[in-house]
Amino acid sequence: MAKALGVGGVFFKSRNPQALMSWYQAHLGFPGESTDYASFFPGAMPAGGCTVFSPFKDTTGYFAPSKREFMFNLVVDNLDEALAQVVAGGAELVGDPQTFDYGRFGWFMDPDGNKVELWQPAVAPE
Question: How far, in Å, CA of 9 to CA of 7, rounded?
Fold first, then answer.
C-alpha cells in the first residue's frame, strides 16, 4: 500500500499573494527564492519538530477570531522573537503563548486575516 510521507504544501487564496509572501519573508524570515512561494526542507526542521495533519470538528473555536476554515502552523526557532517580529510588521497577537511538554505556542492574525499558530518544539532530552 502507498503511504503519505508528509505535507507537501499549504495553499490558500489571498487578495494580494505577492504582498502577503513579502510580509512573511520580511517578518518571519521565509526563504526569498520567489515572491510566489517558499520552500522548506526537512533538514531545516529543529529536533522535535514535525508536520501535523489534524482535522478539527467543524464547530471548533480554535481558529477564532479568523473567519477562515483553516489555520496553519509554522515551526520557529525562537517563539518570543518571532512573535515580536510579526507584531512589528503589524500583526495582531491572539491570546497568550502557551507551553506544553512538546513545545511552546503563540498565535497571530496575518495581514489577510488568517490565524497562524507558531510552534517552538521542546528540545528532546539527550
Answer: 6
Domain 62-126 sits in CATH at: 3.10.180.10
How many Cα atoms within 13 Å fall on the side-chain side of residue 66? 24
- Looking only at Cα atoms, what is the longest distance across the chain? 48
The residue to which cell 504582498 is assigned:
19
C-alpha cell at 16: 494580494
**Ranges of H-type helices in the chain:** 17-28, 79-88
What is the four-CA torsion angle of 95, 89, 72, 99, rounded to 10 degrees?
Answer: -40
Q: Where do the domains of the chain lie?
A: 62-126
Per-residue pLDDT tens over the stretch 39-98: 988 888 888 888 888 899 999 999 999 999 999 999 999 999 999 999 999 999 999 999
Checking phi first, is residue 113 left (phi over 0); if not, alpha (psi -120 to 50) or beta? left
3-class state of residue 22 by DSSP:
helix
> In this prediction, what percent of the chain has a pLDDT beyond 90?
70
Of all residues in the chain, what percent carry a pLDDT higher than 70?
A: 95
